[in-house]
């Protein structure tokens, strides 16, 4: 009788263990995350690395990526539950949270930590000086956007008054800026990669300065979500952040050729050597964040630039709208 009882108890223990194992397995079942990216850019290379190197797959995450082409559209998608997570400039969360939405937008993983634009001069020079811009036509970015705010901030830091010292053009759509410059508009232009490298190779200009190096650390592009997603599905958010951290580590160790071959499926019309050169340019100036943690100093720098541009609706509290716990946990693990 005693043996029968012990046998029954063992069976119950084994069954409970099996059920627990099943529950653990179910928790790690493949989870779909709808991700909206504000644009398609080599500036976001670590995201594509995470997808192509299987880092999301290792976390049992299925990423459904949509390019929404614009900060307003990206935030609309997030607020209307068209996306679980958005990859967009941190300034957009400040704009939205100032309007007191039903759920605040929380920044939880930083992807890029500098501005991603470069200053291109139409005339080649061996000794560029910011004073060279005085009296010229400068083809800048859309007013109110982070590239424009950072660009004007850098000009002022170098004693150039954007309103008085040059002819600043800001009424051209983002998608048409490069074409306008190539067609002859402006002596200087502010461009992202790979367009800047392509123009250099085509003899249309020379990269003479980096706005990323000049402006300092910024939460330029951040993964963000509604508070309900972070609090209600913390395990998914944690696994997502871990995949991004793996990609950030990978991209700083990989060769230019490996980076280019990995992310080339996302840039069909761009030669791999241009992808490699562009990605390394960003990596060399540490535009790619090396961890997902968004530091308070970078958050403050962002708000200083927005305030300087007259675009800060109100101060945004770091402790309220930035979550570093997920990033810190994956780094500890």
Summary?
This protein has 333 residues and is α/β, with parallel strands linked by helices.
Task: For the structure shown, list the relevant keywords.
333 residues, 16 helices, D-Maltodextrin-Binding Protein, domain 2, disordered N terminus, ABC transporter substrate-binding protein, alpha/beta, signal
Overall description:
By secondary structure, the protein is α/β, with parallel strands linked by helices. The chain has two domains: 31-114 and 218-332, Periplasmic binding protein-like II (D-Maltodextrin-Binding Protein, domain 2, 3-Layer(aba) Sandwich), CATH 3.40.190; 117-215, Periplasmic binding protein-like II (D-Maltodextrin-Binding Protein, domain 2), CATH 3.40.190.10. The protein has 16 helices and ten strands. It has helices at residues 2-27, 45-52, 55-58, 71-79, 90-97, 146-157, 177-182, 195-201, 211-215, 227-232, 234-253, 256-263, 272-284, 296-308, 318-321, 325-332; strands spanning 31-37, 61-67, 85-88, 105-112, 117-121, 137-139, 167-169, 188-192, 206-210, 221-226. The strands form two sheets. The protein has a five-stranded mixed beta sheet with strand order 2-1-3-10-4, sandwiched between helices. Strands 7-6-8-5-9 form a five-stranded mixed beta sheet. The model is unreliable at 1-27 (pLDDT under 50).
